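Quick one, tokens below. Sequence please?
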């Protein structure tokens, strides 16, 4: 029996196979609706393609690719001003400005692909790699030579699937951890969470909650997001450009499009003082998992009101009340997320450079590309 594998590459979601969502059932970030958000409001320096993997003409796998042109960035991040940062920025501009990601550079976790359970995953990955090579040729032919190809964000159990000859010799790396918050079954309210904290962190919780007096938190609907779009973008952009490192900036219409297409699965909360929007956070319902997404705030008020910490507590409260099993807090602000109870999950990826000489020394290059973060893990629970 012929069990040949093949692939098709799609440049927009309108052309995706009818059964696409059947393979995305366990991950909203591979669904047609979410990918449509990328069609309509991907960052300005990002081009997305969607890959269908077929066995005997039947769709058996789906994948997302993102091409990043880092030359189009206004800034890689303005927080750290040092020699190493300058060297890193030079290396990016000169040797690594065109990056092809198999996965989602805007999220943390395995959002690269989904295969049917009963297929040969080695054959599917081999086919995905062929699709990746085709994409690289296409970009090259348009004068956008791909410097770095990376498959991103896998747990240790997931990265083992790449232990096949086709991926031999590709540099395996470990990135900053994904901060993962597990919600025990017996927690039904925020009080259950508070009771589980040791005194030091329960005091932190009470102090933060008291500091938030005078702030009104409000669920914002589509019309609110549209009305406040300028302020929302200013608050987001302030936080984003002060991050230690960036590879993209969201489009201004991103949250509006997200709400239009994902509806109640996308939550947007505004924080107000005297009717002035001073911060916001966003959440995405992904089955029994709650994914935290982008946020923004006025830095002067953030410090005084412990706003960021209060946002973390609000996300935990909502997720407990609504019966979610876990929260994905992603990989920024590791220590403060640790202080509210999130645990680091080690994440892995694969990377290769198109220049053989650089590729031979990619481990050294990686030290510059992935800034080291010095942080201390906290253990807030009894």
């Amino acid at each position: 029996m012929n069990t040949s594998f093949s692939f098709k590459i799609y440049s927009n979601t309108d052309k995706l196979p009818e059964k696409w969502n059947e393979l995305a059932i366990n991950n909203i970030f591979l669904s047609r609706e979410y990918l449509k958000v990328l069609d309509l409001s991907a960052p300005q320096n990002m081009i997305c393609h969607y890959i269908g993997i077929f066995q005997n003409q039947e769709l058996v796998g789906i994948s997302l690719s993102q091409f990043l042109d880092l030359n189009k960035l206004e800034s890689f991040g303005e927080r750290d001003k040092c020699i190493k940062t300058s060297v890193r920025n030079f290396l990016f501009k000169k040797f690594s400005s065109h990056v092809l990601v198999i996965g989602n550079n805007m999220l943390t976790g395995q959002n690269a692909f989904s295969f049917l359970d009963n297929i040969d995953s080695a054959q599917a990955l081999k086919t995905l790699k062929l699709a990746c090579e085709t994409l690289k040729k296409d970009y090259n032919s348009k004068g956008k030579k791909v410097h770095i190809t990376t498959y991103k964000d896998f747990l240790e159990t997931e990265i083992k699937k790449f232990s096949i000859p086709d991926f031999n010799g590709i540099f395996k790396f470990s990135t900053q951890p994904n901060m993962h918050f597990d919600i025990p079954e017996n927690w039904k309210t925020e009080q259950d969470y508070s009771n589980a904290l040791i005194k030091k962190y329960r005091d932190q919780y009470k102090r933060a909650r008291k500091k938030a007096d005078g702030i009104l938190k409000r669920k914002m609907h589509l019309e609110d997001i549209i009305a406040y779009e300028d302020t929302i973008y200013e608050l987001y952009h302030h936080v984003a450009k002060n991050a230690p490192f960036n590879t993209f900036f969201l489009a201004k219409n991103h949250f509006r499009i997200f709400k239009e297409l994902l509806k109640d699965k996308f939550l947007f909360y505004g924080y107000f003082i005297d009717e002035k929007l001073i911060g916001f956070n966003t959440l995405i319902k992904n089955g029994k998992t709650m994914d935290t997404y982008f946020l923004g705030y006025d830095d002067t008020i953030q410090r005084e009101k412990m706003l960021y910490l209060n946002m973390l507590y609000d996300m935990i409260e909502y997720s407990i009340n609504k019966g979610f099993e876990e929260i994905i807090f992603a990989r920024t602000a590791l220590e403060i997320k640790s202080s509210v109870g999130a645990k680091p999950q080690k994440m892995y990826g694969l990377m290769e450079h198109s220049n053989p000489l650089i590729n031979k020394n990619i481990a050294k290059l990686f030290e510059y590309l992935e800034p080291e973060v010095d942080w201390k893990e906290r253990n807030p629970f009894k």
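Residues 179-344 form a domain with the Aminopeptidase fold (CATH 3.40.630.30). The chain has two domains: 5-176+346-368, 179-344.
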